[in-house]
Amino acid sequence: MVRLPLTPAEVERGQRLGALLRRARGERSMLEVALDARVSPETLRKIETGRVATPAFPTIAAIADVLGLSLDTVWAEISRSERGAEPAGSGRDARQRLAS
């Protein structure tokens, strides 16, 4: 299977996800969080550093649960643009998609 290169937006989203998880982890060790979420510490490290910009949904759900983050909070944080634009899936485009 050939993986397509990540877009700049996907890379930025991965970096925002990593930053969010690092902030939420606070003083807890990466090892503790990873084991509680049943993911490898290496996986968590790669996500936190942005090396894995598009992790699997169950992985993020497990880590978010351990950190006490709702998936809505995670999505809102990673979907926002650095320029302050509306998050993906909001606004007029989303309303038009829902109306059709």
Task: Explain what you see.
With 100 residues, this protein is mainly alpha-helical. The protein is built from 6 helices and no strands. The chain has helices at 8-25, 30-37, 41-48, 57-67, 71-79, 91-99. Helix 2 (30-37) packs across helix 3 (41-48) and helix 2 (30-37) crosses helix 4. The longest helix is centred in the N-terminal third of the chain and has 18 residues, at 8-25. The N and C termini lie far apart (34 Å). The relative contact order is 0.14.
Shape: globular
Distance from N terminus to C terminus (CA atoms, Å) equals: 34 Å
Secondary structure: number of strands: 0
Helix coverage percent of residues? 55-70%
Main β-sheet, in a few words?
A: none
The helix count comes to 6
Fraction of residues in β-strands? under 5%
Helices and strands, in order, run as HHHHHH
* Poorly predicted runs of 5 or more residues: 85-100
Helix/strand-derived class? Answer: mainly alpha
What's a quick, concise take on this entry?
With 100 residues, the protein is an all-alpha fold. It has six helices and no strands.
Task: Please outline the helices and strands.
Blueprint (H helix, E strand, L loop, with lengths): L7 H18 L4 H8 L3 H8 L8 H11 L3 H9 L11 H9 L1
